[in-house]
Please model this.
Amino acid sequence: MAGNHTQIEFILLGITDRPCAQTPLFVLFLLIYIVTLVGNVGIITLVRVSPSLHTPMYFFLTHFAFTDICYSTVISPRMLADLLSEDKTISFTACMMQFLTFVFFGSAECHLLAMMAYDRHVAICQPLLYVTIISSRVCWQLVASSYLFAFLSAIICTLYTFGGSFCGSNHMNHFFCDVVPVLKLVCPDNHSSEMIIFAFLTINVVGTSMVIFLSYISIIRTVLRMCSAESKARAFHTCGSHLMALSLFFGTAFFMYLQPPSSHRSLDKVASIIYTVVTPMLNPFIYSLRNKEVKGALIKIRRRFLNHWQHGKVVSSRT
Model:
Protein backbone atom coordinates (compact mmCIF):
# COMPACT_ATOMS: atom_id res chain seq x y z
CA MET A 1 0.00 0.00 0.00
CA ALA A 2 2.95 2.31 0.57
CA GLY A 3 3.95 4.86 -2.01
CA ASN A 4 0.79 4.91 -4.17
CA HIS A 5 -1.51 7.15 -2.15
CA THR A 6 -3.97 7.80 -4.97
CA GLN A 7 -5.15 4.17 -4.87
CA ILE A 8 -5.43 3.88 -1.07
CA GLU A 9 -8.88 3.40 0.40
CA PHE A 10 -9.55 3.44 4.10
CA ILE A 11 -12.43 1.63 5.76
CA LEU A 12 -14.04 3.59 8.59
CA LEU A 13 -15.32 1.18 11.24
CA GLY A 14 -17.76 3.86 12.44
CA ILE A 15 -19.32 4.56 15.82
CA THR A 16 -20.65 1.04 16.39
CA ASP A 17 -20.71 -2.30 14.64
CA ARG A 18 -24.11 -3.24 16.11
CA PRO A 19 -26.76 -3.08 13.32
CA CYS A 20 -29.63 -2.62 15.80
CA ALA A 21 -28.04 0.58 17.15
CA GLN A 22 -27.27 2.24 13.82
CA THR A 23 -30.78 3.46 12.91
CA PRO A 24 -31.50 5.03 16.35
CA LEU A 25 -28.07 6.67 16.27
CA PHE A 26 -28.78 7.99 12.76
CA VAL A 27 -32.03 9.61 13.93
CA LEU A 28 -30.35 11.07 17.04
CA PHE A 29 -27.36 12.54 15.20
CA LEU A 30 -29.53 13.81 12.35
CA LEU A 31 -31.65 15.76 14.86
CA ILE A 32 -28.51 17.09 16.53
CA TYR A 33 -27.11 18.20 13.16
CA ILE A 34 -30.36 19.95 12.21
CA VAL A 35 -30.47 21.77 15.57
CA THR A 36 -26.80 22.74 15.08
CA LEU A 37 -27.51 24.26 11.66
CA VAL A 38 -30.71 26.03 12.71
CA GLY A 39 -29.19 27.40 15.92
CA ASN A 40 -25.97 28.72 14.40
CA VAL A 41 -27.57 30.07 11.21
CA GLY A 42 -30.18 31.73 13.43
CA ILE A 43 -27.48 33.43 15.50
CA ILE A 44 -25.69 34.74 12.39
CA THR A 45 -28.96 36.03 10.92
CA LEU A 46 -30.07 37.64 14.19
CA VAL A 47 -26.79 39.51 14.62
CA ARG A 48 -26.89 40.71 11.00
CA VAL A 49 -30.44 42.13 11.21
CA SER A 50 -30.23 43.57 14.75
CA PRO A 51 -28.31 46.88 15.01
CA SER A 52 -28.15 46.50 18.80
CA LEU A 53 -25.95 43.41 18.33
CA HIS A 54 -23.41 45.11 16.05
CA THR A 55 -20.70 44.97 18.72
CA PRO A 56 -17.29 43.24 18.83
CA MET A 57 -18.58 40.42 21.03
CA TYR A 58 -21.29 39.47 18.53
CA PHE A 59 -18.93 40.01 15.61
CA PHE A 60 -16.72 37.28 17.08
CA LEU A 61 -19.81 35.22 17.82
CA THR A 62 -20.95 35.22 14.18
CA HIS A 63 -17.57 33.89 13.08
CA PHE A 64 -17.69 31.34 15.88
CA ALA A 65 -21.15 30.20 14.72
CA PHE A 66 -19.86 30.00 11.14
CA THR A 67 -16.95 27.76 12.20
CA ASP A 68 -19.37 25.62 14.21
CA ILE A 69 -21.51 25.09 11.09
CA CYS A 70 -18.49 24.17 8.95
CA TYR A 71 -16.84 22.15 11.71
CA SER A 72 -19.97 20.05 12.18
CA THR A 73 -20.64 19.74 8.43
CA VAL A 74 -17.17 18.31 7.85
CA ILE A 75 -18.03 15.37 10.14
CA SER A 76 -21.79 14.82 10.47
CA PRO A 77 -23.02 14.16 6.87
CA ARG A 78 -20.36 11.51 6.27
CA MET A 79 -21.03 9.95 9.68
CA LEU A 80 -24.79 9.85 9.01
CA ALA A 81 -24.29 8.26 5.60
CA ASP A 82 -22.00 5.59 7.05
CA LEU A 83 -24.56 4.70 9.73
CA LEU A 84 -26.99 3.58 7.00
CA SER A 85 -24.46 2.19 4.54
CA GLU A 86 -22.59 -1.09 4.43
CA ASP A 87 -19.85 0.45 2.28
CA LYS A 88 -17.80 2.64 4.64
CA THR A 89 -14.76 3.11 2.42
CA ILE A 90 -13.21 6.54 1.98
CA SER A 91 -10.51 7.37 -0.55
CA PHE A 92 -7.12 8.72 0.45
CA THR A 93 -7.91 12.12 -1.10
CA ALA A 94 -11.34 12.38 0.58
CA CYS A 95 -9.84 11.36 3.92
CA MET A 96 -7.05 13.91 3.60
CA MET A 97 -9.48 16.71 2.66
CA GLN A 98 -11.76 15.84 5.57
CA PHE A 99 -8.79 15.96 7.93
CA LEU A 100 -7.53 19.27 6.44
CA THR A 101 -10.87 21.05 6.80
CA PHE A 102 -11.48 19.52 10.24
CA VAL A 103 -8.14 20.80 11.56
CA PHE A 104 -8.66 24.20 9.93
CA PHE A 105 -12.08 24.88 11.45
CA GLY A 106 -11.15 23.22 14.75
CA SER A 107 -8.05 25.41 15.09
CA ALA A 108 -9.99 28.53 14.08
CA GLU A 109 -12.59 27.71 16.72
CA CYS A 110 -9.91 27.46 19.42
CA HIS A 111 -8.55 30.90 18.50
CA LEU A 112 -12.01 32.46 18.29
CA LEU A 113 -12.83 31.14 21.77
CA ALA A 114 -9.65 32.81 23.04
CA MET A 115 -10.61 36.09 21.34
CA MET A 116 -14.11 36.00 22.84
CA ALA A 117 -12.61 35.46 26.29
CA TYR A 118 -10.19 38.36 25.75
CA ASP A 119 -13.07 40.55 24.55
CA ARG A 120 -14.97 39.83 27.79
CA HIS A 121 -11.80 40.49 29.79
CA VAL A 122 -11.40 43.98 28.27
CA ALA A 123 -15.14 44.74 28.58
CA ILE A 124 -15.24 43.88 32.31
CA CYS A 125 -11.72 44.76 33.48
CA GLN A 126 -11.03 47.82 31.29
CA PRO A 127 -14.48 49.17 30.31
CA LEU A 128 -13.29 52.76 29.74
CA LEU A 129 -10.70 51.61 27.19
CA TYR A 130 -12.90 48.98 25.52
CA VAL A 131 -13.78 51.01 22.41
CA THR A 132 -10.12 51.90 21.88
CA ILE A 133 -8.66 48.43 22.47
CA ILE A 134 -11.36 46.38 20.68
CA SER A 135 -11.89 48.60 17.65
CA SER A 136 -13.47 47.41 14.40
CA ARG A 137 -10.04 47.23 12.76
CA VAL A 138 -8.63 45.16 15.63
CA CYS A 139 -11.62 42.78 15.41
CA TRP A 140 -10.94 42.09 11.72
CA GLN A 141 -7.23 41.68 12.38
CA LEU A 142 -7.85 39.18 15.17
CA VAL A 143 -10.30 37.13 13.11
CA ALA A 144 -8.04 37.19 10.04
CA SER A 145 -5.06 36.07 12.15
CA SER A 146 -7.07 33.20 13.59
CA TYR A 147 -8.01 31.93 10.12
CA LEU A 148 -4.43 32.39 8.89
CA PHE A 149 -2.89 30.48 11.77
CA ALA A 150 -5.57 27.79 11.47
CA PHE A 151 -4.79 27.43 7.76
CA LEU A 152 -1.05 27.08 8.39
CA SER A 153 -1.67 24.55 11.17
CA ALA A 154 -4.04 22.55 8.96
CA ILE A 155 -1.58 22.45 6.03
CA ILE A 156 1.40 21.41 8.18
CA CYS A 157 -0.54 18.81 10.21
CA THR A 158 -2.04 17.33 7.02
CA LEU A 159 1.34 17.09 5.26
CA TYR A 160 2.96 15.34 8.22
CA THR A 161 -0.05 13.07 8.87
CA PHE A 162 -0.57 11.90 5.30
CA GLY A 163 2.97 12.33 3.97
CA GLY A 164 4.23 8.96 5.18
CA SER A 165 3.78 5.47 3.78
CA PHE A 166 0.70 3.44 4.70
CA CYS A 167 1.23 -0.24 5.22
CA GLY A 168 -0.71 -3.11 6.74
CA SER A 169 -4.40 -2.80 7.53
CA ASN A 170 -6.52 -0.03 6.03
CA HIS A 171 -9.25 -0.36 8.68
CA MET A 172 -9.60 2.87 10.67
CA ASN A 173 -11.26 2.39 14.05
CA HIS A 174 -13.07 5.73 14.03
CA PHE A 175 -15.98 7.51 12.33
CA PHE A 176 -13.90 10.19 10.61
CA CYS A 177 -10.29 10.81 9.57
CA ASP A 178 -8.71 12.13 12.75
CA VAL A 179 -4.99 12.39 13.47
CA VAL A 180 -4.72 9.51 15.96
CA PRO A 181 -6.49 6.78 13.91
CA VAL A 182 -4.70 7.87 10.72
CA LEU A 183 -1.26 7.78 12.35
CA LYS A 184 -1.96 4.25 13.57
CA LEU A 185 -2.03 3.14 9.92
CA VAL A 186 1.27 4.81 9.01
CA CYS A 187 4.42 2.68 8.92
CA PRO A 188 6.30 2.66 12.26
CA ASP A 189 9.00 5.23 11.43
CA ASN A 190 6.86 8.33 12.06
CA HIS A 191 8.13 9.63 15.41
CA SER A 192 9.32 12.97 14.00
CA SER A 193 5.96 13.54 12.30
CA GLU A 194 4.14 12.80 15.55
CA MET A 195 6.30 15.33 17.41
CA ILE A 196 5.65 18.11 14.85
CA ILE A 197 1.90 17.41 14.86
CA PHE A 198 1.90 17.28 18.65
CA ALA A 199 3.69 20.66 18.79
CA PHE A 200 1.11 22.38 16.57
CA LEU A 201 -1.81 20.80 18.45
CA THR A 202 -0.23 21.92 21.73
CA ILE A 203 0.09 25.50 20.46
CA ASN A 204 -3.56 25.50 19.37
CA VAL A 205 -5.12 23.76 22.36
CA VAL A 206 -2.81 24.70 25.25
CA GLY A 207 -1.94 28.18 23.97
CA THR A 208 -5.53 29.29 23.42
CA SER A 209 -6.76 27.62 26.62
CA MET A 210 -4.12 29.54 28.60
CA VAL A 211 -5.36 32.85 27.11
CA ILE A 212 -8.91 31.87 28.09
CA PHE A 213 -7.85 30.77 31.58
CA LEU A 214 -5.90 33.97 32.32
CA SER A 215 -8.72 36.13 30.91
CA TYR A 216 -11.32 34.52 33.13
CA ILE A 217 -9.07 34.64 36.20
CA SER A 218 -8.79 38.41 35.66
CA ILE A 219 -12.55 38.66 35.07
CA ILE A 220 -13.36 36.79 38.29
CA ARG A 221 -10.98 38.96 40.32
CA THR A 222 -12.62 42.11 38.92
CA VAL A 223 -16.14 40.79 39.55
CA LEU A 224 -15.33 39.95 43.16
CA ARG A 225 -14.38 43.59 43.71
CA MET A 226 -17.76 44.82 42.43
CA CYS A 227 -20.06 46.40 45.01
CA SER A 228 -23.38 45.50 43.42
CA ALA A 229 -24.62 41.98 44.18
CA GLU A 230 -26.73 42.07 41.01
CA SER A 231 -23.69 42.90 38.87
CA LYS A 232 -21.75 40.05 40.47
CA ALA A 233 -24.55 37.57 39.88
CA ARG A 234 -24.96 38.63 36.23
CA ALA A 235 -21.22 38.42 35.53
CA PHE A 236 -20.84 35.05 37.25
CA HIS A 237 -23.88 33.72 35.39
CA THR A 238 -22.31 34.69 32.04
CA CYS A 239 -18.88 33.37 33.01
CA GLY A 240 -20.37 30.12 34.32
CA SER A 241 -22.15 29.43 31.03
CA HIS A 242 -19.08 30.19 28.97
CA LEU A 243 -16.78 28.15 31.20
CA MET A 244 -19.14 25.17 30.94
CA ALA A 245 -18.89 25.23 27.14
CA LEU A 246 -15.14 25.79 27.25
CA SER A 247 -14.63 22.89 29.66
CA LEU A 248 -16.66 20.60 27.42
CA PHE A 249 -14.72 21.54 24.27
CA PHE A 250 -11.20 21.80 25.66
CA GLY A 251 -11.62 18.93 28.13
CA THR A 252 -12.39 16.45 25.36
CA ALA A 253 -9.70 18.00 23.12
CA PHE A 254 -7.08 17.56 25.86
CA PHE A 255 -8.23 13.96 26.33
CA MET A 256 -7.92 13.21 22.61
CA TYR A 257 -4.78 15.03 21.53
CA LEU A 258 -2.54 15.50 24.56
CA GLN A 259 -1.97 11.88 25.51
CA PRO A 260 0.44 9.31 24.01
CA PRO A 261 -0.94 7.40 20.98
CA SER A 262 -0.58 4.11 22.87
CA SER A 263 -2.94 5.37 25.59
CA HIS A 264 -5.94 5.82 23.30
CA ARG A 265 -8.86 3.52 23.98
CA SER A 266 -12.51 3.04 23.00
CA LEU A 267 -13.52 6.24 24.86
CA ASP A 268 -11.91 8.21 22.03
CA LYS A 269 -15.09 7.91 19.98
CA VAL A 270 -17.21 9.23 22.84
CA ALA A 271 -14.87 12.20 23.33
CA SER A 272 -14.85 12.86 19.58
CA ILE A 273 -18.65 12.84 19.43
CA ILE A 274 -18.78 15.41 22.24
CA TYR A 275 -16.51 18.00 20.60
CA THR A 276 -17.46 17.38 16.95
CA VAL A 277 -21.23 16.83 17.23
CA VAL A 278 -22.62 17.80 20.64
CA THR A 279 -20.65 20.98 21.42
CA PRO A 280 -21.55 22.79 18.13
CA MET A 281 -25.21 22.12 18.93
CA LEU A 282 -24.94 23.49 22.49
CA ASN A 283 -22.91 26.61 21.69
CA PRO A 284 -25.83 28.74 20.34
CA PHE A 285 -27.80 28.08 23.52
CA ILE A 286 -24.87 28.71 25.86
CA TYR A 287 -23.36 31.77 24.17
CA SER A 288 -26.48 33.44 22.83
CA LEU A 289 -29.92 32.30 23.87
CA ARG A 290 -29.05 32.66 27.57
CA ASN A 291 -28.02 36.27 26.90
CA LYS A 292 -30.41 39.14 27.68
CA GLU A 293 -29.24 41.20 24.70
CA VAL A 294 -30.03 38.34 22.32
CA LYS A 295 -33.42 37.77 23.95
CA GLY A 296 -34.15 41.47 23.61
CA ALA A 297 -33.21 41.42 19.92
CA LEU A 298 -35.45 38.38 19.37
CA ILE A 299 -38.38 40.17 21.05
CA LYS A 300 -37.87 43.27 18.87
CA ILE A 301 -37.78 41.20 15.67
CA ARG A 302 -40.88 39.29 16.78
CA ARG A 303 -42.75 42.57 17.43
CA ARG A 304 -41.59 43.98 14.10
CA PHE A 305 -42.77 40.86 12.31
CA LEU A 306 -46.17 40.88 14.08
CA ASN A 307 -46.68 44.59 13.35
CA HIS A 308 -45.81 44.05 9.70
CA TRP A 309 -48.13 41.04 9.50
CA GLN A 310 -51.03 42.90 11.19
CA HIS A 311 -50.47 45.92 8.95
CA GLY A 312 -50.56 43.63 5.91
CA LYS A 313 -53.84 42.09 7.08
CA VAL A 314 -55.42 45.53 7.56
CA VAL A 315 -54.34 46.68 4.08
CA SER A 316 -55.58 43.49 2.43
CA SER A 317 -58.99 43.69 4.22
CA ARG A 318 -59.47 47.30 3.05
CA THR A 319 -58.74 46.38 -0.54
